[in-house]
Specification:
The structure holds two protein chains of two kinds. Chain A contains two helices and three strands, in the order E-E-H-E-H. Chain A is an alpha+beta fold. Chain A has a domain of 52 residues: Roll (Ubiquitin-like (UB roll)). The chains are: A alpha+beta, B mainly alpha. The interface between A and B is medium-sized, with 14 and 14 residues.
Chain lengths: 92, 214
Amino acid sequence: MIWEVFRQERKGQPFTHGGSFHAPDQAFADAYAREFYARRGESVALWVVPREAINAIEEFPDEFDLKYRRVDGYSIKARLKEARDRAGTTAD
Amino acid sequence: MTERAQLLIELADDELILGWRNSEWTGIAPFLEEDVAFSSIAQNEIGHARALYELAARELDTDADALAFDRKPEEYRCAPLVQLRFVPDWARTIARHVLYETADAIRIEHLKEHEDAALAGVAAKIEREEVYHRLHAEMWLDRLGREARYTEAVEELWPYALGVLAPELRPALAERVDRPEVDAVERHAPGEEFAELWNEMTMVRRSAPVGAQW
């Protein structure tokens, strides 16, 4: 059985993925997580999660190129250049 | 030597030699994760030994390394339980781990109440780490507890486990593991199996000139 461990470096910080290992049950997993990810004082808290409890989502179809929904929005560079050319002005 | 120094050295020798024996699994434990965990526990035990030797050393006007490595094999006071070499027998290793941690818990609880504040303080510190050693021992006990090779090992090691504790603490151990008190294998001058361990353990120290700094 594979376990994923998330660790928190300091109180209040987000948990980040630490790594994974094999262990037969939660008790073994907790003991190993402690030894692997907290023995040197590098974590203040751990989340020890069976990998099968994690539902991975990897498909995100975007067939119609709906750019306006993305944070970077439209690129106006090309359209700005066209407009300037029409007006006979150039950027300084 | 005072009774206090004698007690400290017995405890420290137990932790050092058990740590040494358990460290013999490094690289060859049943699986990788256990290898890391068991080696780490072994290292903790040796850390406890250091703290105890340091307390004794202050009283005896020497240092922890000298107590750990410069005595003759026959001067060590460790219980016979921790001297036994079990590699590659995991069932007996875990049986000893469970029995030792149970006995040690009783001993540490007792020492936390010791009239000597320094000794009681070190005992409290050790206890905070031993909690996790016991959790580790118990999870293996849950797995192996009903296997014949495990129960046979406990049967064999039970008189040795009693020998870890002073006679007045033995009834508590018998009660905790639910076994009748039998004749204990008492502490005595170590034998041949120990001499071999000692030879390896002190090899580097003996190869360096007296007074070398590390």
